């Protein structure tokens, strides 16, 4: 099993920045890929960014060029650097890890972007 704990959420003004962190523990060596998802009230949960074990990244069109996903293998950490935040980025952000057979989820962290 893999345990994931997100942190770094909060409230920020439009145009501001936040960095989300995800601490992984447990069977970390089984992880093939990791991702950030988000879910706004009344909307479906959707993928924000993914990173493979080889370091390849992909982003949702809505966050491309503003968000950066990265991983620190030694520290067992996943990050999401969010720049130029917009009100539509407001959501609960979830860390996800895949080991081919299963998906593991963190508890989520709230990001609110408003004036």
List keywords for this structure.
about 120 residues, mainly beta, 7-stranded mixed β-sheet, 4-stranded antiparallel β-sheet, about 55% strand
Count of DSSP-assigned helices: 0
What is the helix fraction of residues, given as a range? under 10%
Structural class designation:
mainly beta
What global shape is seen? globular
The number of E-state strands comes to 11
**How would you characterize the largest beta sheet?**
7 strands, mixed
Report the β-strand fraction as a percent range: over 45%
Order of helices and strands: EEEEEEEEEEE
Report the span from N to C terminus: 40 Å
Task: Please explain how this structure is put together.
- The structure is a single chain.
- The protein is an all-beta fold.
- 0% of the residues lie in helices and 55% in strands.
- A hairpin with a 6-residue loop joins strand 4 (33-39) and strand 5 (46-52).
